[in-house]
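We treat protein structure as text, and this decision shapes the records that our systems exchange. This encoding replaces a full spatial description with a residue-level series of whole-number codes. Below, we set out a record of this kind in full and without editing:
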Amino acid sequence: MSRRIRQLLTVALLFLPLGAVAQRATDILDKAATVYEQSGGISVRFALHTRSEMQQFAESFEGIMQMRGDKFTLETPDASIWYDGKTQWVYMERNEEVNVSEPTGEELETTNPAILLNAYKKGYNASLKGESTAVSGKAAYDIELTPKKKGDILKVTLQIEKTTHLPARITMESKNKLFTTIQINELKTGINQPDAAFSFDQTKYPDAEVIDLR
């Protein structure tokens, strides 16, 4: 899997809170999960910054993510992902290819925010590290998450606005000193996107080669 695809799937994983054990952190994150479930569809504009101390590279790009229930789409300047609750399409503009798959439940736990909402309470320990001010100027909580089982993710830090209970910034530290920061520039709720918005539309990409991996 290419680094860019991994970055895109990381975005999908990180946009929503992952859970907590410490009581106050649990209360904050449970509230955030409830806000998502009752949102009626979310649209997010974000900037993602990645740097690796070991591989000595840094990269930044902006994108848009749409979410409703167990469906999501992700758009960046050179790649897009659609997931309709069963089928996933990954389009890479550079080679005009679309990979079609049906992710397993385990795979979805690392790509789909809605699946994480059902699994987060058993996967991470959390602690409330303090409070800060988001880019919007609003007061926010800072929550640190550490996975209960060893894996690629070592630590996730969430900045969650107090008034909206929605994430403002997310930072992840992975193995090999890889750091990913997502700055949320705009977040809208109540979008209520149609189902068609979460499926790949072949008519918009007539020259794309479709590779069916199902």
User: Anything to note?
Assistant: The chain has one domain: 3-212. The two ends are 16 Å apart (CA to CA).
